[in-house]
Amino acid sequence: MGATITHVLGARPNFVKAAPVIGALAALGHEQRVVHTGQHYDERLSDVFFAQLGLPVPDVNLGAGSGTQARQTAEVMVGMEQEFTENSPSVAVVYGDVNSTIGAALAGIKLGVKLAHVEAGLRSFDDTMPEEINRRLTDQLCDLLFATSPEAVGHLAREGRPAGSIHFVGNPMIDTLLASLPKFDAGSARRSFGLDGRYVVATLHRQANVDSPARAAELVAALRQVAAELDVIIPLHPRGRAALAAAGLFGAPGVRVVDPLGYIEFMSLVRGAAAIVTDSGGVQEETTLLRVPCLTLRPNTERPITITSGSNRLVTASELPAAVLKACDDGPYAGELPPLWDGQAGPRIARVMTAWLKARR
Hints:
- The chain has helices at residues 12-27, 47-53, 69-86, 99-110, 130-141, 150-158, 172-180, 186-193, 207-210, 213-227, 241-246, 263-271, 281-290, 305-309, 320-330, 345-360; strands spanning 4-9, 31-36, 60-61, 91-95, 115-120, 144-147, 166-168, 199-203, 231-235, 255-258, 275-278, 294-296, 312-314.
- It is of the alpha/beta class.
- It is globular.
């Protein structure tokens, strides 16, 4: 079609969101290029996702690695400046709210690269979250804004983004989830980890939760209380491992700490859980579709649609043990799913982008 679309991916949530978009654009005949920034460089958080989601092998890996917020963002900016200079795209697509997202957007805008943001308009209104800064700034730089919820459309409009740039398309993460449902084997997950009865899956990685030794200790104490009633299994992200280990997570009775899991393995475990304890944004949405009760260890969320629907609840560490037991007793979420969670977000994005590129030509 004479237009090259470059996708910039850096972390697990990016891969899950990008798969249906890349697939839909490929079906329309677009030439595409995939850049892996290397923000998530552990094979279990990166390579395995490409294989399981059918993503193309990245054309380049920038190897940004870990580091402080500034260092990681700077590494992405330097790498993407070179990438955009050597391989100038018709449009670059960034995903979500990680440092790779804002780093690529800043590098691109300074070189005149047209930008699209998938998952635009999400807001927690909590500026202590680095992800909130990344989201807001990225949306100010992008030419195409693909929103996953009606609330996101409203946020973008109030921030002065042009109406013609905003497109409510649904949630591509849900596309991936729906397409992969037949592969999620809760029974196999139970057998793999020796889980006989009801169990809870926990994920913790947010800066506010794991960078403070005091906060980490508070959360570990709460998980120990939960584990007195139900098995707790936690696939542990590299971020925060040291703080959580120092707080006594390893060896706690009833708490099983495992290495990060691939997408299929993790979602199989989630599908069979009685409840989920998390500080992740994407997991709040994934559990909603799977109808598994979710308790989010945060004071706010950029995905309020999961709160208003009733599938998710914000809790403090002190509230967690009682909230988990209540969620398990209440059983699966039975309410309505958010609008446009129909598995067609990827094709919608592809059609909008195709029309936009055609108009520009």
